[in-house]
Design a protein that fits this description.
By secondary structure, the protein is an alpha+beta fold. It has 16 helices and 31 strands. The chain folds into 3 domains: 183 residues, 3-Layer(aba) Sandwich (Phosphoenolpyruvate Carboxykinase, domain 1); 266 residues, Phosphoenolpyruvate Carboxykinase, domain 3 (Alpha-Beta Complex); 77 residues, Phosphoenolpyruvate Carboxykinase, domain 2. The strands form 7 sheets. Strands 1, 4, 5, 6, 7, 8, 9 and 10 form an 8-stranded mixed beta sheet that branches. A 6-stranded mixed beta sheet has the order 14-12-13-25-29-26, with helices on both faces. A 5-stranded mixed beta sheet has the order 2-3-18-23-17. Strand 30 and strand 31 form a beta hairpin. Helix 15 packs antiparallel against helix 16. The mean pLDDT is 96. It binds oxalic acid and manganese (II) ion.
Amino acid sequence: MEKPVKNEKLKNWIEEVRQLCAPDSVYVCDGSKKEYNTLMAQMVESGAAIKLKKRKNSFLFRSDPSDVARVEDRTYISTPEQAQAGPTNNWVAPDELKATMKDLYKGCMKGRTMYVIPFSMGPIDSPIAKIGIEITDSPYVVCNMHIMTRVGKKVLKKLGKKGEFIPCLHSIGAPLEPGQKDVSWPCAPIEKKYISHFTDENLIWSYGSGYGGNALLGKKCLALRIASAMAKREGWMAEHMLILRLTSPEGKQYHIAAAFPSACGKTNLAMLRPTIEGWKCECVGDDIAWMKIRPDGRLHAINPEAGFFGVAPGTSYDSNPMAMDTIKKNAIFTNCALTDKGDVWWEGMDGKPPRHAIDWKGRDWPNENKEVAAHANARFTVPASQCPVICEDWEKPEGVPIDIFVFGGRRAGLVPLVYEAYNFNHGVFMGASASSETTTANIGAVGNLRRDPFAMQPFCGYNMGDYFRHWLDMGDRLGDKAPRVFYVNWFRKTSDGRWLWPGFGENSRVLKWMCERVDGKAEAVQTPIGLLPKLGSLDLKGLKIDERDIHELLKIDMDAWKAEIPDIEKHFAQFGDRLPDELKKQLKALQERLG
Ligand code: OXD
Ligand code: MN
């Protein structure tokens, strides 16, 4: 089975892990359809997966109720010095963490197959792409990696005998004793889960969870935490951003990269259907952007992923018709409900709820406790190529040139619908002080306000103060070719809880305003927080919206903004002398403008 592996370092690593984890067998993945189908058939046979009657080649999995989201409390950036990881990351010294985890890994794959997954983040021939190798004992992870990344022989070929790769070790942490019957979602208890990143060594060790970003190590672990640290060292950017292409009626293309925290609508925005006439939107990526300055002096972005791992609840033909069409076939669903007709269902899907379903815990639904049928962080995994609005250049090796950066979050009050930064450094300040109400994408309380700089709080692989500096440095290198920076808030509500902005396809109106700002066409007014649309410059043609709501959406409440300053100060203070002076200056300038 190990024959296809010619790379010396990889051969040694496979052998080292085999000895430590003691699997029954080792299998090197070839990335073929046959491999995917065989593993799925085995999982259906064992009861781990349910084949959906209503969707071609699609399957439903139910996780253990303790293993439903990313575990930020159990996620570590393990660097020799704690200061390298900074105040926003959990830290344990590498020797200590490795010793703890080696104990856990000892014999942890007993009774199971150890899969070796060669994968590429980014199109294999892209100069921005990186190769990873995930070793896992979860066939569910293998199938998801087939969709989310480019897997198999072609990656090994590219790696060659001497090529470099990022080792990603994963175990669900549930060895089987001889004769022991397996459960449908094996995993370890929370206190034994570890998602560890040894960023100085480009090494990932994950233990105990089979879910999402904890287990599909190409995504958050490699493409954000490890990649952000590499990007800092090598002078590029790895960001938690969707990428989209907007084309005007005149045929001019604009590329937008937007950072919103988890479950704030990145996937919906990436697949937006513009409601304004003549404008077209295409999706390049929905979660992660890797960006490099090319010889033309501009920043070019690739989507390092090959699939979407989207939040299912709330996805409907209303909110995201393109996602609904994308998931019609070849999809993996996790923690959705199962209808009696053999399809998936979740809260917020179109039409009436089914009269009866099996909920994500495998029980009859509805139940007397009125619990939800699908877990709030239920997901679909699906190939990006199936998206009806995937951009024809989404796999272009050199990426697409970025014109506009957008930051944002979920704020019921305070933050207006849209505003523009005065300049790039002001934009960095806006990204660095971004905030959002928390969602269900990670384990923890929902609805609390947290600062989530650049939507990278859970994903930055090094000291966030140094990361701010890196943004400022990139701005200096880009000069007048730097993207323009905007901040949006689709989630503003009235005091009695009504949404002020219709969102979804109507967000195209806001994006159009940004493009027209880039072209020097749309007018803006100067306010203490930045440049807001001048009334009339936002295209509201055909939109039924009360004028009072528009006023409210674009209102700046000076007192409320002043009250925000101490929280930004506190947030910045945690970075001590690693906070760039420029950001202190930007904060002071905001304070002065607020009066
Ligand atoms: C995701 C997340 O899954 O950000 O993309 O949590
Ligand atoms: Mn994300």
